[in-house]
From TrEMBL:
Biological source species: Acidovorax benzenivorans
Listed InterPro entries: BPSS1780-like (IPR047798)
The protein's name in its UniProt record: BPSS1780 family membrane protein
Domain of life, source organism: Bacteria
Stretches that traverse the bilayer: 21-42, 48-70, 97-118, 146-164, 202-224, 231-251
Alphabetical keyword list: Membrane, Transmembrane, Transmembrane helix
Region called Disordered, residue ranges: 259-284
UniProt feature, compositional bias: Pro residues: 269-284
Amino acid sequence: MKLHIVPARTGMAWVKLGVRAFWRQPMALAALFFMTMATMSLATMIPLVGPAIALALLPSATLAMMVAAAQASQGRFPMPTVLLVAFRTGRERLRDMLTLGVLYAVAFLGIMGLSALLDGGQFAQVYLGGAPMTKEIAENPDFQRAMWLSMVLYLPLSLLFWHAPGLVHWHGVPPVKALFFSIVACVRNFGAFLVYGLGWLGVFLLGGLVVSIVSALLAVAGLAGSMAGGIMVGAAMMMAAMFFTSVVFTFRDCFEPPSTPVQEEAPHDNPPPSPPDTPPAGPL
């Protein structure tokens, strides 16, 4: 397996490819994203272990969106069964994906635990949905310190798991090695990922501006209220779905395709092919 070192401008190409792939199958990809979020929300309702189970499902949910985006980019219609892709590619892959999920849940809960040392668990309760956000809480210095600590620690965690689901699924890489290769790929392609992040920040800011303008026009027309709230939630879900749609393109350009196809997978489970001008690859 080899790692591709891509120029910084590739980050903007990933944003464009994600948006383009989403609009090829907008209803299907938006519905799949909503179903993954709904499944994780339902999991949090399980007593005691619900939040941990929801966190453990995130790598599988990310993989499902990657496969669905690959199908959409190839002109195929992603079916709801793609949500189970992590659980239907053999016992070994299933075990590895479950291991990834457990590692992610443990690491994330560890970050929340460290933040609790600063504010007594207030930020963790708000972030995990167990407590409402109030002005008093937001202005609490201990809460702010816990929030910034969590953000700083979550960045390397997200890099560790960014490519890991795809490496396990398409390359058969063991979970721990997949985490290592994932963060190496992100660090080696720092410029591209920086541009990628800034590009999506611009998309979200532009989307927020459009929603604000539409909400203001509805208010002038006397149609504000629940309609404006629905538009805001719908726009946020759509932009989040577009973001997750773009993840597969970062994976495709950072790693060479698998040398041999996995027999248990359908052909449309393969990542989208690299463009003809793929940059030279270097050994990982």
